[in-house]
Q: What sequence folds into this?
C-alpha cells in the first residue's frame, strides 16, 4: 500500500507493507508507514522488491549448503565409527585437520560466494513469499537431508573400496593419533574420502546458484549446457 496524505494513514498502518512518499507525503503518513520512499519514484519499489528477494534467496542458499555439508560430514564420521582397528578403536574416515580445513576453507568460501550471488533472471516472475514461511521451508529441509545423506554415502563409497578393495583392509593401530607403516592404507582412504567430500561440496555450491533450474542449464531459455 502506498500513500501520501493524512487519510491514507489507516490503510498504511493496516497494510502488510505501508509505503509513504518521502518528498510529497505528510508527516502523519510517514509515521504510519513501514517504509518511506525518499525519491517518490515507484520504480524504486520494484528495485527494492528484487533486492529483497535476492537477499532471501541467498540466505536460503547459504543455509542449505552449509547445513547439507554439515549433515554429510557428521554422517560420514558417525558411520565411520563402525571401522575398528586391532585395539577395537574406531578409525575416523576424516582426520581432525581435514575436518577443520573443510569447515573453514572448503565449505566456508563457497558459502560466502552464495551470499553475494546476483539475482536469478526469473526472480520477479515468482509469486510473493508467504509471511508464515521462513528460510526453513519443507522443501528446503528435504533438500538438505537428501544432499547431505547422498554426499555422505558417496564419500563412504570412496573410503571403503580404497580400504578393503585396493588396500589390504588393515586398519593398523593408533592411526587416529599418529602415522606408521601399518596406517598407510587408512591414510590413503582418508585422503580419498576428503578429496571426494571437497569436490562434492564445490559441485553442490555450483548447484545452489539456482534453486529451481537444472545444474546444466541455469539460464532460462538457453539451449546450451553449462550456461551459468
A:
Amino acid at each position: 500500500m502506498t500513500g501520501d496524505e493524512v487519510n491514507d494513514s489507516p490503510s498504511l498502518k493496516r497494510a502488510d507493507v505501508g509505503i509513504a512518499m518521502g518528498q510529497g507525503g505528510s508527516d502523519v503518513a510517514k509515521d504510519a508507514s513501514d517504509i518511506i520512499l525518499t525519491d517518490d519514484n515507484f520504480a524504486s519499489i520494484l528495485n527494492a522488491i528484487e533486492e529483497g528477494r535476492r537477499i532471501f534467496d541467498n540466505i536460503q542458499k547459504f543455509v542449505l549448503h552449509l547445513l547439507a555439508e554439515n549433515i554429510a560430514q557428521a554422517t560420514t564420521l558417525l558411520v565411520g565409527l563402525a571401522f575398528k582397528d586391532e585395539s577395537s578403536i574406531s578409525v575416523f574416515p576424516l582426520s581432525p585437520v581435514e575436518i577443520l580445513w573443510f569447515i573453514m576453507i572448503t565449505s566456508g568460501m563457497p558459502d560466502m560466494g552464495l551470499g553475494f550471488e546476483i539475482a536469478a533472471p526469473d526472480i520477479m516472475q515468482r509469486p510473493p513469499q508467504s509471511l508464515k514461511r521462513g528460510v526453513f521451508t519443507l522443501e528446503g529441509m528435504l533438500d538438505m537431508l537428501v544432499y547431505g545423506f547422498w554426499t555422505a554415502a558417496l564419500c563412504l563409497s570412496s573410503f571403503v573400496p580404497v580400504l578393503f578393495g585396493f588396500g589390504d583392509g588393515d586398519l593398523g593401530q593408533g592411526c587416529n593419533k599418529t602415522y606408521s607403516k601399518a596406517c598407510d592404507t587408512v591414510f590413503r582412504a582418508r585422503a580419498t574420502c576428503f578429496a571426494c567430500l571437497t569436490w562434492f561440496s564445490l559441485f553442490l555450491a555450483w548447484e545452489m546458484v539456482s534453486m529451481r533450474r537444472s545444474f546444466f542449464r541455469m539460464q532460462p531459455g538457453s539451449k546450451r549446457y553449462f550456461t551459468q
